Every structure is written in structure tokens, then in C-alpha cells.
Amino acid sequence: MSATSINLRAQIIQACQQLEVAGLNRGTSGNISCREGDHFLITPSGVPTAQMQPASIVAMNFEGEVIGSGKPSSEWHFHSDLLRHRPELNAIVHTHSPNATALASLREDLPAFHYMIAIAGGDSIRCAPYALFGTQTLSDYAVAAMQNRKACLLANHGLIAAGRDLDEAMAVAIEIESLCQQYLLARQNGLPVLLSTEEMQAVIERFKNYGRNVHSPEKN
Description:
Structural class: alpha+beta
Distance between the termini: 38 Å
Shape: globular
Number of helices: 6
Order of helices and strands: HEEEEHEHEHEEHH
Largest sheet: 8 strands, mixed
């Protein structure tokens, strides 16, 4: 195992720990993957974050075969398919975060109630239809919901966030969980007023001008 691979595996474990500390995942829920050359690395199945070591992270090719040893997360299908079909993405973060999962359980998209929806590349966060976890059907639904997006909800399940690297994927996951919380809070008091297509397009264009930064322009 090369030093570069060990470092990437350590980054994946650190990200898992960050999600757990933030309450976005608990126990063995959720999973993370990162592209590594012509294959990808993914968190193992059923291993608590506290017990993960670099050697615990599983390497897989895009044909769904394990390279070496280990049992990958049961959700490896959508990690593999997203990384294969979206070459601009290099990291996938899947969480069962409370607010994103609550909205996903309503089987609703997250609409343009706030300009930061554009962090995922469009004017909404789509909710993929329900399918059994760990299946190709779920992966197919996720890939479709993620078209031209860096995130989607999974009905009655959770959230997928992606990025050009692990830092961006994590930032997208954290931001969308916060947005879901804000949206659900607003819904308790009525229906939020949504930004128009034109208003959201202006935000999306503004984000493009800020290069690799995934945060809102006002913070820079």
C-alpha cells in the first residue's frame, strides 16, 4: 500500500469521524468513497468508525470487484456508478443525517427557498424514488436524481453529496443538512417563498465566478 493510498484512506476515516461528531451519521450508518486512479476506495460494511484503520478501507474496480480483501459498504453500487459516469466527481459522501432524512421521508425535493441550494449545482435538490438499500435499482435512481447536481435525497433513506474532492463533498453534505433543517423549520410556519428560476440562475452564475470555493460569495 503506497503512502498516497494510506493518506487518502486516513482522510476517509477522518471524514467519517467528522460526520459522526457532527451527528450526521451514527454507528455504522452512511459511507464514503474516493476515486483512486483507475479504481476507488470505499468504507467497509458494518465497521464502526472508531474501529476503522487504513487497511479497513476497501478498494474496488468499476466492475464491482474487490481489489485485495475486505467487504465494501452495501451501497457500493451508487458510489461506483456515480464515480464512473461523472468523471468530474472524485468523492461521494452518503449520510443518514436527521434533517435530510426527515425531508427524504416526505419524498419531496428540496426547493429553492434559499440561494445556497445552488451549492449542488442547480435550483433544487431532487429526491430519488425509494428502492431497497444496496441495490442496483437504488443506484439507477440516484444517478438520475444527481444529473447535473452534486447532491440528491434518497426517499425514506438519506442524502448523497459529491464533489471534486473529499473536502467539497463534505462541505456539500454539511450545507444541505443545514438547508434541510432550515426548510423544515420554515414549513412549520407556512410555505416558504421560493426564489425564481431567474434569481437562482443568477446565484449559480455568481458561484461559477468563485472558482473552486464551495462557500457562498459573501463569506470570501
